[in-house]
């Protein structure tokens, strides 16, 4: 699944593995998160 959806499957940003539960889809885009951390 990551190979199809993630730009870099070795560093997942959109599909998070939740141990003991399954998968969770990230709701925050990486572009928005990086803009919030800027001063």
Could you characterize what this model shows?
The chain has 39 residues and is an alpha+beta fold. The chain has one domain (2-36). Helix content is 28%, strand content 21%. The chain is built from 2 helices and 2 strands; from the N terminus they run αββα. It has helices at residues 2-5, 30-36; strands at 15-18, 22-25.
Task: Compile the SSE list and pairings.
Blueprint: H1 2-5, E1 15-18, E2 22-25, H2 30-36
Antiparallel strand pairs: 1-2
Overall spatial form: globular
Strand content: 15-25%
Q: Which runs of at least 5 residues are low in confidence (pLDDT < 50)?
A: none
Tell me about the largest β-sheet.
2 strands, antiparallel
Q: How large, in whole angstroms, is the Cα Rg? A: 12 Å
Structural class: alpha+beta
How many domains? The number is 1
Q: Figure out the total of helices.
A: 2
Sheet with most strands: strand arrangement:
1-2
**End-to-end separation:** 35 Å
Order of helices and strands: HEEH
Number of strands: 2
Residues in helices, as a percent range: 25-40%
Mean residue pLDDT: 77
């Amino acid at each position: 699944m990551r190979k199809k959806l993630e730009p870099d499957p070795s560093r997942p940003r959109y599909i998070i593995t939740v141990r003991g539960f399954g998968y969770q889809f990230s709701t925050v885009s990486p572009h928005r998160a990086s803009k919030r951390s800027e001063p």
